[in-house]
Design goal:
There is one protein chain. By secondary structure, the protein is of the alpha/beta class. It is built from 12 helices and 15 strands. It has helices at about 65-75, 115-120, 160-170, 200-210, 265-280, 295-305, 325-335, 355-365, 380-390, 400-410, 415-430, 440-445; strands spanning about 1-10, 25-35, 40-50, 130-135, 145, 150-155, 175-180, 215-220, 235-245, 250-265, 285-290, 315-320, 370-375, 395, 435. The longest helix is centred in the middle third of the chain and has 18 residues, at about 265-280.
């Protein structure tokens, strides 16, 4: 028996691969057939899938009885012979003989074969679930990132276009852009963030010109553009503290001046609104404020709507933790803070309920997607937001998670591919609808069955 699929060569469907290992005994062969249409002759391609004689030898003996005669024979008690019932399996020698446990429910019944396991699988992954983070810079050449094996700063005109082409080839059509800004363009107020001819707007326009249907997410924050390396504008407050010094037997009194640095919230939000509008004007589909300033989602929504960008979505970094897993990312963008840390605006890793507060605020302010970052160490927070909100939930498998899996694979401590897929499945199972991950391309190739 053969299954034949035919189609005209002028409107041909490309079948890139038939995985015969997944379909035992099937072999693909292509034939061509001449078809006369009016006075013209067209060559029609026919794909024939047949069971190969080598792997699928089945001998069926047919009788000359009609269907009615076969039914009459069965009614008369002359049923045809069928293969014998398989014998009961024999346990290994030494297996104890025990009575069956009185169980009414045995969950292992639904796990006893690959077909059953596939039938009842609750969580599935697809390349459509992935958003590919891409690092870009002004250079022509792609620069490898030492702390993230396999990742590069891509030249925005060449390497980036090729990388997006490869991603789309395996079903990934969503990317998020992170720029490495030249140091001379960094300022305390991050004005380069809303330069409409800056690196990110130029890149968006280029990608939309090459791939009009691509979904482009952007990062809205000042840290790549700030000379201080923080997500907001830094104010330096001088304070004087009275001190006493004891010199030999006498005491003297004096003052010492200290600098306290404060991340300014409302002034930063003003800059972020201009940044989001510049990205939307260039063609961004989703702007993603990752700064964790208070009130920024409502302000950005109002700014976008006022400029006619009501269709541009906001993916808010709702629960972004002050995590140590971000190290390799900061190397990639050369965006380490010049001083201190980001604990006054990013969330405390010890806090769980606080994520609900952020969730309710962002939802009320008009966010379209809520994101948790990092992903794997915060799966409980992913599930919390999934249970508390009807909005789509995103999770960011960050650079530290990626690099640890890559390092474990290089050292042969783990099976990198299996751990990669398990980690992504766990994030999806926890409740994430989309996953930002540097594993997007290899994971998509695995799902497509294309081991390259």
């Amino acid at each position: 028996m053969a299954c034949t699929i035919s189609f005209a060569s002028s409107n041909a469907l490309t079948i890139r691969k038939l995985d015969c290992q997944s379909y035992v005994g099937l072999k693909a062969s292509k034939n061509q057939k001449i078809v006369y249409i009016g006075r013209s002759i067209k060559l029609r391609t026919i794909l024939v899938v047949r069971a190969s004689a080598e792997e699928h030898k089945v001998s069926v003996k047919r009788s000359v009885l009609s269907n009615e005669e076969c039914e009459a024979a069965v009614v008369a008690g002359n049923a045809p012979e069928a293969p014998p019932v398989p014998p009961n399996p024999v346990a290994p020698i030494g297996t104890p003989v025990v009575p069956s446990l009185p169980l009414t429910r045995r969950p292992r019944r639904n796990r006893k074969s690959p077909a059953l396991r596939a039938s009842f699988q609750e969580t599935t992954l697809s390349p459509a679930n992935f958003v590919l983070p891409l690092f870009i810079h002004e250079g022509e050449d792609d620069t490898p990132i030492g702390a993230m094996p396999g990742c590069y700063r891509l030249g925005w005109r060449h390497g980036l276009v090729e990388e997006v082409y490869k991603a789309r080839d395996v079903g990934i059509n969503s990317v998020v852009l992170f720029p490495k800004i030249p140091d001379p363009l960094k300022t305390p107020t991050g004005v380069e963030a809303y330069n409409e001819n800056g690196l990110v707007p130029r890149t968006i326009r280029l990608l939309k010109d090459k791939y009009p249907d691509i979904v482009i997410y952007t990062d809205v924050a000042l840290d790549p553009y700030s000379s201080d390396g923080h997500d907001g504008i830094v104010r330096e407050d001088e304070i004087q503290i009275k001190i006493f010094l004891q010199i030999v037997l006498s005491c003297c009194e004096g003052f010492s001046t200290f600098i306290i640095r404060v991340i300014m919230n409302d002034e930063t939000v003003h800059q972020l609104c201009k940044q989001a509008v510049a990205q939307a004007r260039a063609g961004a589909d989703v702007v993603s404020p990752s700064d964790m300033m208070d009130g920024r989602v409502a302000a950005i929504r109002a700014a976008l709507d006022a400029e006619g960008f009501a269709d541009v979505s906001i993916m808010s970094y709702t629960a972004k933790y002050a995590s140590s897993f971000y190290g390799p990312f900061r190397e990639a963008l050369d965006s380490n803070p010049r001083f201190g840390d980001k604990k006054t605006y990013q969330m405390n890793p010890a806090n769980y309920r606080e994520a609900v507060v952020e969730c309710h605020e962002d939802e009320a302010e008009g966010a379209d997607i809520l994101l948790v970052k990092p992903a794997m160490p915060y799966l409980d927070v992913v599930r919390l937001l999934r249970d508390k909100s009807a909005l789509p939930i995103a999770a960011y498998q960050v650079s530290g998670e990626y690099s640890m899996i890559k390092a474990g694979g290089v050292l042969k401590m783990i099976d990198e591919e299996k751990v990669m897929m398990e980690s992504l499945m766990c994030i999806k199972r926890a409740g994430a609808d989309i996953i930002l991950t540097y594993f997007a391309q290899p994971a998509a190739r695995f799902l497509c069955g294309e081991k390259r």
